[in-house]
Write a structure and sequence with these properties.
By secondary structure, this protein is α/β, with parallel strands linked by helices. The chain is built from eight helices and 16 strands. The strands form four sheets. Strands 5-8-2-1-11-15-16-14 form an eight-stranded mixed β-sheet, sandwiched between helices. The longest helix is centred in the first third of the chain and has 22 residues.
Amino acid sequence: MNQPIVVKVGGSTLGQHDTALEDIAALQQAGHTLIVVHGGGSAATQWLKTHGVESEFIDGLRVTGPDAIDVVVAVFAGLVNKQLVASLQALGARAIGLSGADGGLLSTTQADPRLGYVGEVSRVNSEPIDALLAAGYMPVISSVGYWQDDPARLMNVNADTVAGEIAAAVGASDLVFLTDVAHVRDAFGGDLAELKASEVETLIASKAATGGMIPKLRAGARATQAGTRCHIVDGREAHALRAVLEGGAGGTTAVSLGTRVTA
């Protein structure tokens, strides 16, 4: 089995008629081994609003109190996960959905008391992933884990962080973040075509990277330090995923598609 490719599909681009799922299915059919990690932030925000819960973020991470965790789990591990699995299978992929609570996949600690039930990954148990890959299935993983101090407690985990930790744990060849921004910017507002892992915290400190880009960059740095190539790509571009992995004109050296984070 070849080295897996981890693809993080963002809640901000899901359902926007992009070609990401087509590319994922086609890559699997071409013999690549893929793991999909997803969030579902836009859907969670809508459902939380329906339940009268306001969405609040700190450093790009969703505050998830006791009135929000059940909704977040239902949306991420239920609605969004199963929609993705069904869509991929309709495109000819072999996919199975699971959360980080299944098989003890994602053990977490509490990231920050201000965030509530938000977990920081403390351990990845890759056995469920390995079993699915060995059987020829693509794991589609929602960003829900469990609290190691209280294993019955489900935790919201940032999907970018999950993708980076899983990529490092399984020895992925590539980690691709499909996002809805055209460029990662430097401190002077210029477009970055490449970024070293050692430069990530400086970029964040300069306020050039804010909001949801912060966990992407940190997760990318984590993965590259484990030997994985990381790409931050504008998923709205047609067939951006295949382009970046096949090294075509739309690859990571093309500023129209974003940034490669290197070791």
